[in-house]
Design goal:
By secondary structure, this protein is an alpha+beta fold. It starts with a strand and ends with a helix.
Length: about 130
């Protein structure tokens, strides 16, 4: 499914802060499907169970924001991401931010795109 809920929160930029979040999520049996941590302390991640993840983090005192994002899988080859971003641009969709990963040599790449209207973007992109 190309639409997922992304959670974001601010962490102090100090040792152990990300680890504390990971331990909380582990205790709630929540898996992290994608993650991006900026040096400013903004943590964005896509959990497999966003309701449980958000509740767990809020109970621990974190202010958690939720956003619907595009979360898709692309063939791990040169030009795959260019094709997706070209198509979105041609439809007038601005990408606010993105993060992605793959295992070197693996067949697929996971890509998260933050856009204004994820449902419209998914429909227009055909994903």
């Amino acid at each position: 499914m190309p639409l997922r809920t992304e959670l974001s929160l601010r962490l102090p930029n100090s040792p152990g802060e990300l680890e504390r979040v990971c331990v909380l999520l582990d205790g709630a049996r929540v898996s992290v499907l994608a993650l991006h941590l900026e040096s400013s302390g903004r943590l964005r991640f896509v959990p497999d169970n966003p309701l449980e993840a958000a509740e767990t983090l809020r109970e621990a005192g974190h202010q958690v924001e939720e956003r619907e994002v595009l979360f898709t899988s692309l063939t791990n080859r040169p030009g795959a991401l260019a094709g997706l971003t070209r198509h979105l641009a041609s439809q007038g969709i601005n990408i606010d931010y993105a993060y992605a990963t793959t295992i070197e040599g693996g067949p697929r790449a996971g890509v998260v795109l933050g856009v204004e209207d994820a449902r419209r973007a998914a429909s227009l992109a055909g994903i």
